[in-house]
Amino acid sequence: MSPAMNKKSQTETDTPKLNPGDQGDAGTPGVGENVCPECKGKGRIGVTSCPTCSGTGTIMEGIGGA
User: 11: pLDDT confidence band, cut at 50, 70 and 90?
Assistant: First the structure.
């Protein structure tokens, strides 16, 4: 495989992965970190990773009331 095929695009390396419960990227105006409502911040439900926050215990959600 050529070295050019191994390179990731600029978008792939700079864009943070969103979890299923996230409403936006960190640092986006109007978005803030909150405790995951499913696992209550534990990151796990029973013995498995929380599917909403992907095991982080936090989600990014819209703030304010616009």
Answer: very low
HSE-CB at 10 with a 13 A cutoff on CA atoms is 0
Give residue 56's domain range. Answer: 37-66
Would you state the pLDDT for residue 13?
53
Q: Do residues 23 and 31 touch, judged by C-beta distance below 8 A? A: yes
Q: What is the DSSP string of 7-37?
A: PPPHHHHHSPPPPTT-SS-TT-TTEEEEE-T
Residue 47 inside a domain? The answer is yes
- Please report the pLDDT score of residue 3 as a whole number: 52
Domains: count for the chain: 1
